[in-house]
């Protein structure tokens, strides 16, 4: 399919996530960046797959303690998802939740609470009270 085919880029993103799970953060970051750059080039900056790549990069940056860059990426993912998918789309709510976790790690508890409450409220509306996403929020 080629290096820049959307299916190839999804595979790159999946590998990045696996590497991150194994604690291979530098390799994971490289793969996340490759997936993001390819998605931006082929699909555009606001495509949902690109925004997923943004979120993936944000999480590996967070795992490495690169909080400022991670926050920039988390906010980009959230703002793009809100604009393209809407405020109550599951991907948007996941982005809000992920940003909330990062903000908590940074000690920004008031904004973290706001993001987590937003995600919880959205999950309750779209999934109900007993859904795993709602319960873990």
Automatic annotation (TrEMBL):
Keyword Phosphoprotein tagged: no
Cellular component aspect of the GO annotation: cytoplasm; kinesin complex
MF-aspect GO terms: kinesin binding
TM annotation in the entry: none
Iron-sulfur in keyword set: no
UniProt KW keywords: Cytoplasm, Repeat, TPR repeat
InterPro entries to which the protein is assigned, alphabetical: Kinesin_light (IPR002151), TPR-like_helical_dom_sf (IPR011990)
Name the record gives this protein: Kinesin light chain
A Pfam family hit: TPR_12
Cell compartment(s), UniProt: Cytoplasm
PANTHER family in alphabetical order: KINESIN LIGHT CHAIN
GO BP: microtubule-based movement
């Amino acid at each position: 399919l080629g290096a820049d085919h959307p299916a190839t880029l999804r595979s790159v993103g999946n590998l990045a996530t696996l590497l991150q799970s194994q604690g291979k953060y530098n390799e994971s970051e490289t793969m996340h960046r490759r997936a993001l750059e390819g998605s931006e080039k082929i699909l555009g900056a606001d495509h949902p797959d690109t925004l997923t790549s943004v979120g993936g990069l944000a999480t590996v940056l967070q795992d490495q303690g690169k909080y400022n860059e991670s926050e920039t990426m988390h906010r980009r993912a959230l703002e793009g998802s809100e604009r393209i998918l809407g405020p109550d789309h599951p991907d948007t709510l996941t982005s809000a939740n992920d940003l909330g976790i990062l903000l908590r790690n940074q000690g920004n508890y008031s904004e973290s609470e706001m993001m987590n409450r937003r995600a919880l409220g959205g999950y309750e509306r779209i999934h109900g009270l007993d859904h795993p996403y709602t319960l873990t929020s």
